[in-house]
Amino acid sequence: MAGLICAAVSSSIGTGSATTKTLLQITAPANTGIRVTRVSVSFDGTSPTAGKAYCELVRGATSGTGTSLTPVKLHGHTGSVQSTAKENFTSEPSGGSSAGLAELVHTQAGYTSPEDILLNPGETLSVRTNVPAAVNARVRMRWEE
Fold first, then answer.
1. Do the strands 65-69 and 34-43 form a parallel or antiparallel pair, or are they unpaired?
2. Which domains does the chain have, with CATH numbers?
3. What sign has the CA pseudo-torsion 92, 58, 22, 32?
4. CA-to-CA separations, 73 to 5, 41, 60, 77, 119, in angstroms, rounded
5. Residues 69-124: tens digit of each pLDDT
6. Would you give the DSSP letter of residue 52?
7. 25-70, pLDDT tens digit by residue?
8. pTM of the model
9. Angle (nearest 5°) at CA 68 between 64 and 72
10. Nearest CA to 136 among 42, 39, 28?
């Protein structure tokens, strides 16, 4: 049933230096798709001359080792959240394809997705970065089940 608004917010995660890092991944419930309405990434960089961070949204990546994160219900009907989430991957997910949203952003700023993304039942959406100099990042995803 549509109308359950959910979110997952990562902890502050070290990006590493010039390393591809998956920060947050959500998985739609096996029995229904979801509509991701917002993805935002913020960085705590302090250098105005630092190189830009590459931020990419990836659909359908599998496996990988991340820390489980419990999504929260923001508002909506009386149902419970069926989606799952992981953060701060120590072993990168494999496969997947670009969701068509990739940007270079300054590490004193952040990134917000400009459009909704529909996920099929059981499909994942991940935020992956590659930052020239290590900074911390925080990611928030909001969706409707």
1. unpaired
2. 5-144 (2.60.120.380)
3. negative
4. 6, 20, 23, 10, 18
5. 999 999 877 789 999 999 999 999 998 888 888 899 999 988 888 889 999 999 99
6. P
7. 999 999 999 999 999 999 999 999 889 999 999 999 988 899 999 9
8. 0.93
9. 135
10. 42
